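Re: the multi-chain job from yesterday

Posting the exact lines I submitted so nobody has to dig through the queue logs.
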Amino acid sequence: MAFGQKFKLINMAKKTFVVGCFDDEEVLFPAVKKTRLAGYKIHDIYTPFPVHGLDHAMGLRETSLHTAGFIYALCGTSTALGSISWILTKDWPLNFGGKPHFALPAWIPITFELTVLFSAVGMVLSFCYLCQMAPFVKKHHFHERATDDLFVMVIETTGKTNIDELKGFLSNNGAKEVNVQVAEPGWWLGRYDKDQELIREQVEVA
Amino acid sequence: MHLKYESQLREPLVYGDKTYHQVTEDIVRPIEAKPTKLWYVGFFIAVALLMFGVYSVYREVTYGIGQWNLNKTIGWGWDITNFVWWVGIGHAGTLISAILLLFRQGWRTGVNRAAEAMTIFAVMCAGQFPIFHMGRVWMAFFVLPYPNTRGPLWTNFNSPLLWDVFAISTYFTVSLLFWYSGLLPDFATIRDRAKTKLRKYLYGVAAFGWTGSTKHWQRHESLSLVLAGLSTPLVLSVHTIVSFDFATSVIPGWHTTIFPPYFVAGAVFSGFAMVQSLMLILRKVFGMEDYITLGHIEAMNKVIVLTGSIVGCAYLTELFMGWYSQNKYEGYTFWYSRANLFSPYGWSYWGMMACNVISPQIFWFRKMRRNLFVTFFMSVIVNIGMWFERFVIIVTSLYRDYLPSSWSVYYSPTPWEMGFYLGTFGLFFTCFFLFAKYFPVIAVAEIKYVLKTSGESFKDGMDNIEEKGSEEFAHEYAH
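And the result, structure tokens for all chains:
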């Protein structure tokens, strides 16, 4: 574990999670509702495909990613118009067939293309940043079939949580498989073909 | 109980009694298996073609554009024909992935991944032609506006050729981002079931640490929707701008206002034909008949007959305008250089008419739309026809222009000109073979998403829903 020895993993805070695996999204929905009503804190639900309405059921707020996309688009528009008009009217005005230097209609295509380009690139980068995704980023996977056919509900526990009761609660609500995992919920730089023991001890911060 | 309802009248999108796991198995299995002999044969043929193309380009770069039969009169020949043809091919992928997403066409899920891959590879091939047509290719970066020591001397932002630079590069970038962001969850699926260390490592890197978190899915959905919304006008703009290369000139046969819609329709037409050719092979080789169904093929044939007829309409409009404008040069170009079978290039015009307008009419018949042999044959015919279209537009307008003294001798390509074109086929198929072997050719997560509404075995469950009134259904299933 070369990586862990080089850096002090102060941010790595292990937590205890109770994991319930469902094999049908139609069983999952009532279970989510009941779990929230019972007052448990759902850390996350991992699904193999986007389950519509699950974000609302979990009480997540709408994403603002599309707003960011709009702002990036405006940046693209102003970059294109600003630079082209500066170049062709101020920096080096060239005479193209006696046409006006400020030839706005002829700039529309490039302005449009840069609008789209800025918006798309910006949104994808924001998406990766918000989801903390990049090559060589590794995260703890609560169940490896969460990307295949299981809907994995992960509940965060506190010292006061009665874990056995919670496990029973999940199986009563249709979970096919229930287990307890101590895991690091964030990400770290690592490789999926190697097991890394990231959390060996909690670092005490004075 | 169903979270979403779809009418029984619609054909299933996924055949067979599938579970989510079965979907993963079916699509990922070819990736995990060893490549077949057929794959090796195809791959090496593609690489050989690519090598021939590299050699042809090498000759062109070393000895100059004189390696091609272009001359003062016909300054654009096979190269720009091929450029427009390949860009057009790319358009179907974006149409399927973006426009059909906005129109909520469920059937796109079966074919969008491979069609998007086709888009990316086709645009890569297209880009080669204008770049090497420059002659001194090492100066290619001059098309980019960057502060330089020559003044700075900027590019001409009023020129359609520069618009093309921006359009094609934006199109390539956005298509790549759209495609790759869709691939992330599927790479994660392969990573999580990988048995070998190498596969786990490589797909682990490729999946960017995707977990399938609900919040991530929510953002992913938003991203896909906005990228689709951006790609839709983008794809229309790309071929519009390509058509501006011609339409803003004063050459008879090019100087027409119908070019943008006519080019876009033609692009979608040829692109769908290419998708058909590839899909028919893909579903056969990988046994994906359950996912790429006859329904998918029929839907695409409907698009082909629609866009083919739009293109046909444009051809007739041009002929009409050639006469109605009473412009001598227009009339000469359309009625002599093109529509007259016995003029030097008349054969290409009538080849185009036969391939693009007359033969696709066969798809008015449902039986023909659902016939695999007819579909495959027609997909090849349409692509040949669309190549002819670009050849007709470029060469028949150029070879006899305003000055009879500069009329060209008969233009035919050199082997190196043809070699370059073959080479792009090599590039395309090399990429496509690698894609088909190492990438999930069908979007796994998206198939799972539509499985319970459009899967064959799940559709029977809709019967009891159909008996209920819509009010009752809405009340019960709304959340």
